[in-house]
Amino acid sequence: MTLTHAFPADESALDQAFDRLGTRITVARDEEVYAQDDEADRFYRVMSGVVRTSRLTADGRRQVGDFYYAGEVFGLEPGPDHRFAAEALTECEIQVVRRSAVRAFAGDVEVDRAILEATRVEMERLQEHVMLLGRKGARERVAGFLMGLAQRQPEDHVDLPMGRQDMADYLGLTIETVSRMLTQLQGEAIVAFPSTRRFHIRKWGALEALAA
Amino acid sequence: MTLTHAFPADESALDQAFDRLGTRITVARDEEVYAQDDEADRFYRVMSGVVRTSRLTADGRRQVGDFYYAGEVFGLEPGPDHRFAAEALTECEIQVVRRSAVRAFAGDVEVDRAILEATRVEMERLQEHVMLLGRKGARERVAGFLMGLAQRQPEDHVDLPMGRQDMADYLGLTIETVSRMLTQLQGEAIVAFPSTRRFHIRKWGALEALAA
DNA sequence: CGGTTAATTGAACGCATTCAACACGAGTGG
DNA sequence: CCACTCGTGTTGAATGCGTTCAATTAACCG
Predict the structure, then answer these.
(1) Is pLDDT above 60 for A1?
(2) 0.90 cut: is pTM over it?
(3) Of A170, A162, A175, A160, whose CA–CA distance to A136 is shortest?
């Protein structure tokens, strides 16, 4: 899996800051990058692997915030501390910079612009997530999820780095329902699963219509 | 209703830009401030009244994004155009500034910071909204909604500027379910509704526990 | 190969929706 | 003042979608 498209040719000030000031860490599968309620004083960029953010409610229910692929920035959060934890879904290489270090670098203007831009990307995802959770049925949620992954990995066969539980917790459903919807979509020949962690879209139109 | 608390003593660069460059408009009840898919080239600040943002899916389902009260900024959206429309819930006075005008004013640094800050506030709301929609039942959603309103209007009696349909579309429920939950909460003496558009919290602890 | 975890499938249940009827409130006109 | 209407909100009964609980199958790894 290459995902070279995730690194745009023109690097933003934030990307440059990562390149120059970032310390590279590797995080093992299922290890935590930062915990819920940790201080949010760093930015992170995925170099390889996939990161998942999630939040646990007091009574143990889990909501996953999003999944971050190579080239994507995470850890941008509104408050002084993280409302969502971040964990490595697969073994990950991650670049980290302290926020204060980023500020000192390259003059504030460009950096602030870049941070704002990254924050906007994050916001767009959140808006999409709200639409998904608010007014869509299980079929549509699952279809939308698969579409989203396929757009990020425009290869013929898309792999699912996350398990069913993670999908379910992202979609606000249960593993059973997710599983049922997947077999249903497969039964209608809209998608095909050669293995549980790998799929292929056979009817883009149909999937798109569902994901709407 | 005063809501003076919504205007902090120390004005941000954005607030100052509004004060100096903003043109004031008044929008009648149910009139549109901007439409879905309009170009997003302005910032807005509510002076009086309440604004609602909402998005319509292709097949007519509606999701309400949020409600904005006096002192709050809206219209900050990630992309070049609005994914959510904005409408006046009540008659509103709104200050408007072009984004380009804001940039030209006061040097980029402070303005960018202020915009970033406002964007973060918006992001926080979106995160909260995702949590609400993803892993909460109808009771909890309604309770959480009432809590949110009560926190913004720390008076004894809180009024609901929006109708049941708006609440439902914000919460991802139907009007009937919202209504049932309200009567249920009232039956348990957690809240009291002297009229349909006005309520009072009788058991903060119980409501808080539900909203968690 | 077992042994273990993850994923699928089945059946019963429950919560929210749907569809329908009724109540309430505000505004209008007799 | 009452009668009438229209919009909005509430309540009831039946349906359905997703969940829950339980059992089976598939994938992974020693």
Answers:
(1) no
(2) yes
(3) A170
pLDDT tops 90 at residue B11 = no
Q: Do B115 and A119 touch (CB under 8 A)?
A: no
Q: Which architecture characterizes domain B136-211 according to CATH?
A: Orthogonal Bundle (1.10)
Q: What share of chain B is helix, strand, coil (3-state, %, to 5)?
A: 40, 25, 30
Instruction: List pLDDT tens digits, range B162-198.
Output: 999 999 999 999 999 999 999 999 999 999 999 999 9
Nucleotide with the nearest C1' to A175 CA: C7
Task: Determine whether B136 is exposed, middle or buried from the number of CB atoms within 10 Å of its CB (0-12, 13-18, 19+).
Answer: buried
CA–CA separation, B155 and B177 (whole Å): 27
CB A81 within 8 A of CB A38: yes
Give chain B positions within 8 Å (CB) of A111: none
Alpha-carbon distance of B84 to B34, in angstroms, equals 9
Give CATH for domain A4-124.
2.60.120.10
B13, pLDDT greater than 90: no
Give the pLDDT of residue A32: 96
Please state, in angstroms and rounded to a whole number, the distance separating the CA atoms of residues B135 and A187.
28
> Exposed, middle or buried: residue A9 (CB in 10 Å: 0-12, 13-18, 19+)?
exposed
Q: Is A95 helix (H, G, I), strand (E, B) or coil?
A: strand
B138-152 vs B175-187: helix crossing angle, rounded to 10: 80
**Who among B78, B109, B134 is closest to A172 (CB)?**
B134
Confidence of residue A16 (pLDDT cuts 50, 70, 90): confident
Enclosing H/E stretch for A198: strand A198-201
Q: Is the pLDDT of residue B4 over 80?
A: no
Looking at the partner chain, which of B55, B62, B112 has a beta carbon nearest the beta carbon of A113? B112
Q: Look at strands A73-74 and B198-201 and give their pairing.
A: unpaired
Are B4-122 and B136-211 the same fold in CATH?
no
Which CATH number is associated with domain B4-122?
2.60.120.10
| A116 part of contact set with chain B, CB < 8 Å | yes
Q: Where are the domains of chain B?
A: 4-122, 136-211
Alpha helix ranges (H) inside B67-212: 99-104, 108-135, 138-152, 164-171, 175-187, 204-211
Structure tokens, B125: 């709301």
